[in-house]
TrEMBL record:
Signal peptide positions on this chain: none
A GO MF label: ATP binding
Species for this entry: Streptomyces boluensis
The name this protein goes by in its record: ATP-binding cassette domain-containing protein
GO cellular component terms attached to this protein's record: membrane protein complex; plasma membrane
Length: 261
């Protein structure tokens, strides 16, 4: 990448264009004795229309990378881009708008409003933004995540898996440039978790969505097109067309070479 001569070459996405890109991205917390280098010159591209999993041991910088890429945290140096937009130079107002217009989020906690129906939760971000939902798109999303019969239900009337489906639909409903999912199956049993991963997968295949997911789980990572591995704030490796076994093998290899905690 021309603008990052000093940074290591990015690990390239297997896609024609990147929906998001970090170049020489570093994040340092604290100073002096409490200084922590959470990210150390990370360069990575997240391909448009692809599903990427970020893996690595606890404390390796996965959440920090996701937060910096999503404009939820500032970068110390280097570049974080969503499409063509450089996040580093944006003030709070522009960052808020970028998150609202271009990014969908799915977190471990479903973060639904209890007094609203599933449909109202799904379309809430657009209502706040004063945008009218694209009904055909929202219908496609609702079909994809299998919520068609439950749109009038409130969160308390839905199972955990169904609530997370609403959260996934909410993330997809505004047709964001990219969806960031942070341990989206962490609060679900394995069946409901597999369903959610299937829907994320489906949103990539059927709707052309770009998804980036942080996970500890090799089985979850196997739903992605590609896994990138972090250790000690650095990008160390990647795996294309992962299977749970290959991801596990790679994790064991890291342990054996002492690159992980
Ligand atoms: N706000 C903060 N202030 C100080 N240090 C932080 C902060 N956030 C993260 N860190 C540190 O940065 C490093 C990377 O943390 P991060 O949460 O990104 O790791 P992670 O790979 O997501 O871990 P986990 O899998 O446990 O969630 C850790 O050493 C962590 O203690």
């Amino acid at each position: 990448m021309s603008q990052a001569a000093a940074a290591p070459a990015p690990i390239h996405a297997p896609a024609s264009a990147a929906a998001a890109r970090a170049t020489g991205l570093s994040k340092v917390y604290g100073s002096g004795e409490t200084r922590v280098v959470a990210l150390d010159s990370v360069s990575v591209e997240f391909g448009r229309g692809h599903f990427t999993a970020i893996m690595g041991p606890s404390g390796s910088g996965k959440s920090t990378l996701m937060h910096c890429m999503a404009g939820l945290d500032s970068v110390s140096s280097g570049s974080a881009r969503i499409g063509d937009t450089e996040l580093a130079g944006l003030d709070d107002r522009r960052l808020t708008r970028l998150r609202r217009d271009k990014i969908g989020f799915v977190f471990q906690a479903f973060n639904l409003l209890p007094t609203l129906t599933a449909y109202e939760n799904i379309t809430l971000p657009m209502a706040i933004a004063g945008r009218r939902p694209d009904q055909a798109w929202v219908s496609a999303v609702v079909r994809t995540v299998g919520l068609a019969g439950r749109l009038d239900h409130r969160p308390s009337q839905l199972s955990g898996g169904q609530q997370q489906r609403v959260a996934v639909a909410r993330a997809l409903a505004s047709r964001p440039e990219i969806v960031f999912a942070d341990e989206p199956t962490g609060n679900l049993d394995s069946r409901a978790g597999a369903e959610i991963l299937g829907f994320l997968r489906e949103s990539v295949r059927e709707l052309g969505q770009t998804v980036v997911m942080v996970t500890h789980d090799p089985v979850a990572a196997a739903h992605a097109d590609r896994v990138v591995f972090l250790a000690d704030g650095r990008l160390t490796d990647e795996l294309l067309a992962p299977t749970a076994e290959r991801v596990l093998d790679r994790m064991r290899l890291f342990d054996a070479t002492g690159r992980t905690s």
